[in-house]
Amino acid sequence: MLTLLKTQTMFAQSFITGFAFALTASAQSYKASFTEYGSGDQNGSGNCNVDTTACGYYTTSGYSAAASQNIFGVGPGEGAGPGCGTCWKLTIQTDSSGNEVSNAGNSIVVKVTNLCPANGNPLCAQSSTSDTNQYGANVNFDTCIDSGASDALFGNSGVGLGVGTAEKVDCSQWSGQTDQ
């Protein structure tokens, strides 16, 4: 009986330790800044939901974004980085001045389809996920206007640059479809 009890206790301890490790290993969450790009933006960008993005595909019926180079994984002209196709839950909290936005807590799930390059872009210039940009964010997501991500995240808040959190999630939480 004592042997059975010890075995059950060891199993329970192993299960709890393994479960805690799995949660820690799978959860990537960062303070993030959010911007927007695509047709009609202030930089004169073209459509951001096309198959000529850095990942080489676009999305239909789902939100997409460009990710800062530190999570995209490669620089401009180096092809599709390991961040291509990853999904992230973006939650907005404040504007760029630190004031709570009217839709604070609003979240969307995006799929990474493009690169927000570090060179010449201080928002995306963090060399690692422990570094921060001028808004104290470890990563930046440039939400694609043409996929609807920008409107969905910023809503009627009146801002085009926000700060909040980005959490890597399983793509089963993303509502779209990838096309090439």
From TrEMBL:
Signal peptide: 1-27
Pfam families found in the cross-reference section: EXPB1_D1
Name by which UniProt lists this protein: Expansin-like EG45 domain-containing protein
Swiss-Prot/TrEMBL keywords: Signal
Entry keyword Signal: yes
Domain (Expansin-like EG45) ranges: 52-176
InterPro entries for this protein: Expansin/allergen_DPBB_dom (IPR007112), RlpA-like_sf (IPR036908)
PROSITE patterns: EXPANSIN_EG45
Signal among keywords: yes
